[in-house]
Design brief:
Blueprint: H1 3-13, E1 17-22, H2 26-38, E2 42-46, E3 61-62, H3 66-70, H4 74-90, E4 96-104, H5 109-124, E5 133-135, H6 137-143, E6 154-162, H7 165-178, E7 182-185, E8 187-195, E9 198-206, E10 211-222, H8 228-235, E11 243-254, E12 263-266, E13 275-280, E14 283-287, E15 291-292, H9 304-315, E16 329-338, E17 353-357, E18 363-367, H10 373-387, H11 422-431, E19 437-439, E20 442-445, H12 446-455, H13 461-468, H14 471-474, H15 476-494, H16 498-512
């Protein structure tokens, strides 16, 4: 993907777009793939980098949702389990099967959770990842050697999906481009065009050079997630908010805290939340919190209470208790929950998606979760066809391979995340003699910076260290130490000067402070 070529396509298309998508997260990217693969002329505009918001800050799970099973939301679980299976088939290089152990410390837990997870298996049907079963104490410790043994009676094992959210997002953007969509980051939509009271386009600015564009389309789709209301208010400043934002926080620990082959799932903490401890990229993710917030921030920051909650609760299940000094990174994301009016707690609000069409014809898709992004996209484009009076065409994404797909599952380690591009990345590293690691604590090679700029539209140091690779999330301090080297490599590829390098390092240094607890 090349940003300059994408921008050139704006003029070449001569304002004859079928669909304009505002928002380059999971939902927007999914819509772009669905619309472009049906043959519609599709434009996606993202004001930051692709996946800058919620879509790169998830718990890294592709799952049916045990939580929703507890809530009795069977329709959402059924849909999500099917989508989990489809995504595993269509993105084998990024979606893998992971075993989860529910440790049992009370006499009733084995039977209670065992029955519930058998129902989970049954609902998955042909899309199942494996059969759940009860474990003895010895079997449980074989899978989770660092599990607290005091009072342990055994456990229940079940299977769900794990993925790299930001990498999948980039691959979706690449897939959309391969099917003819024009996709551009750092393009901010700041107004809507109207004709006879109906929305027929957008006014947008290229944030890299401040050039303003007026672009028309038959349908404008608002897929900005937690920021949906801000776009809706471009049409009607008095529009009632439909989003109830919620912040979810995670901490990253060294792999020594969870050295086994499985993850831990605690189905009920002291305040009713589910807690996960999950191996990921040779580190451990612990999460998540669920805190209602007044507004959505593009760079949400965890508070002390959330970090303490995660440390205290995970310590109950591990023989080695993590402290602030063990935290490698802290990251938070804003969930775009749709207001229900009945739920007091954000973790009780359904994750089902909602499609809203305004009087002026702005189509907003909100809610949902990563696992169901494809179905959300299909539903949205189906509505867009009717709204924009487009030629009806059926969705083809159920069996559409996502960029990077490989015949066999790939090891979830480095270069594997590139899937079918892995050999090209290796070749580039060798070609430029840039096979050295950027940092001894990060499995990232110098040549990957060039790859990200040339092929994945990375424009800033943050783009590369946070989303093209996951350095910021995996080890914030190490990522900061490598930022100057990354900035110099990117500057050469992007034809930037020394002032750009200085500004990038300063900006990334400030950003990194949000990912390190104050105690460190």
């Amino acid at each position: 993907m090349n940003r300059d070529k994408m921008i050139a396509a704006l003029s070449e298309q001569n304002n004859s777009w079928d669909i304009i998508i505002i928002g380059g997260g999971a939902t927007g990217a999914g819509i772009a793939v669905d619309a472009a693969s049906r043959g519609y002329k599709t434009l996606l505009l993202e004001q930051n980098d692709f996946g800058k918001g919620t879509s790169s800050r998830s718990t890294k799970l592709i799952h049916g949702g045990v939580r929703y099973l507890q809530q009795g939301n069977f329709s959402l679980v059924l849909e999500a389990l099917k989508e989990r299976g489809l995504l595993h088939a269509n993105a084998r290089h990024l979606v893998s099967n992971l075993s989860f152990v529910v440790p049992n410390y009370d006499w009733w837990e084995g039977t209670f959770y065992g029955v519930g997870l058998k129902l989970y298996d049954m609902m998955a049907g042909k899309y199942g990842f494996g059969d759940s079963r009860k474990l003895s104490e010895e079997e449980t410790l074989a899978l989770i050697p660092t599990l607290e043994t005091d009072g342990l009676r055994g456990g229940v094992i079940y299977y769900d999906g794990q993925f790299d959210d930001a990498r999948l997002l980039i691959n979706l953007i690449q897939t959309a481009a391969e099917y003819g969509a024009t996709v551009i980051n750092y393009f901010r939509v700041h107004d809507l065009l109207k004709s006879e009271g109906l929305i027929n386009g957008v006014i947008t600015t290229d944030l890299e050079n401040s050039k303003i564009y007026k672009i028309k389309a038959k349908v404008v789709i608002n897929a900005t997630g937690a920021f949906s209301d801000s776009i809706r208010k471009l049409e009607n400043s008095n529009a009632t908010n439909i989003i109830a934002p919620s912040r979810g926080t995670h901490i990253i620990l060294d792999r020594s805290f969870l050295p086994g082959n499985g993850a831990i799932m605690v189905p009920h903490t002291s305040d009713g939340r589910i807690l996960f401890a999950i191996p990921w990229h040779n580190k451990v993710i612990v999460g998540t919190t669920d805190i209602a917030v007044d507004k959505a921030d593009i760079e949400p920051k965890a508070d002390q209470e959330e970090i303490d909650f995660l440390l205290q609760h995970v310590s109950k299940y591990l023989t080695k208790d993590p402290t602030y000094k063990d935290i490698l990174s802290v990251f938070s994301g804003i969930r775009p929950l749709v207001k229900s009016g009945a739920s007091e707690n954000s973790y009780a609000i359904s994750r089902e998606h909602t499609i809203n069409i305004s009087r002026g014809g702005l189509l907003t898709i909100a809610g949902g979760k990563w696992t169901t992004y494809r179905k959300m996209a299909e539903d949205t484009v189906d509505e867009a066809i009717i709204l924009g009076q487009l030629e009806p065409k059926k969705s083809v994404t159920e069996n559409l391979r996502i960029h990077g797909w490989t015949e066999e599952e790939i090891d979830f380690n480095y270069f594997g995340m590139y899937g079918s591009d892995a050999e090209f990345v290796r070749t580039l590293c060798n070609q430029y003699n840039m096979y050295k690691l950027l940092h001894p604590s990060l499995s990232i090679h110098e040549g990957e910076v060039i790859w990200a700029v040339k092929n994945e539209m990375a424009r800033t140091v943050e783009d590369f260290l946070s989303r093209r690779t996951r350095a910021l999330l995996l080890d914030a301090k190490a990522s900061l130490e490598t930022a100057p080297k990354v900035a110099k490599i990117m500057a050469k590829e992007l034809n930037r000067n020394h002032l750009w390098i200085k500004e990038q390092i300063k900006s990334y240094t400030e950003l990194t402070q949000n990912y390190l607890p104050k105690d460190l």
